[in-house]
């Protein structure tokens, strides 16, 4: 809701399989992806997308502060890892940075 009000055009997936389907039908400019989803996890989705040649930014947005999960997410191919306890301004800044510059710091 907050991201929509900030002017972002969003597509919302109900799970990992739905996210893969949406990305295949209409590849987004950026993906916000949780690690924990009802069907397949974000690690699998990230690896699957990268395996199809998807090069746009994938930002993991998760409740997990685990260093093991962070490493696993980057190993799977994510571009950024944000824990859900962040402030909304941090998320918007990260999204804007990736959309404007194609990623990186």
**Structural class, from secondary structure content?**
alpha/beta
Counting DSSP E segments of at least 2 residues, the number of strands comes to 3
**What order do the helices and strands follow?**
HHEHEHEH
Strands in their spatial order, largest beta sheet: 1-2-3
| Unreliable stretches | none
Mean pLDDT, to the nearest integer, reads 88
* SS summary, helix count: 5
Q: Report Rg.
A: 13 Å
Q: Please indicate the percent range of residues in DSSP E strands (runs of 2 or more).
A: 5-15%
How far do the termini sit from each other?
A: 26 Å
Give a short account of the largest sheet. 3 strands, parallel
Helix proportion range: 40-55%
Shape, per Cα inertia axes: globular
Keywords:
105 residues, alpha/beta, 3-stranded parallel β-sheet, 5 helices, 46% helix, 11% strand, globular
What's a concise summary of this model?
The protein is α/β, with parallel strands linked by helices. It is 46% helix and 11% strand.
Detailed description of the structure:
By secondary structure, the protein is α/β, with parallel strands linked by helices. The chain is built from five helices and three strands. The protein has helices spanning 2-5, 16-25, 42-51, 67-76, 88-101; strands spanning 31-33, 58-62, 80-83. Strands 1-2-3 form a three-stranded parallel beta sheet, sandwiched between helices. It is globular, with a radius of gyration of 13 Å. The model has no long low-confidence stretch (mean pLDDT 88).
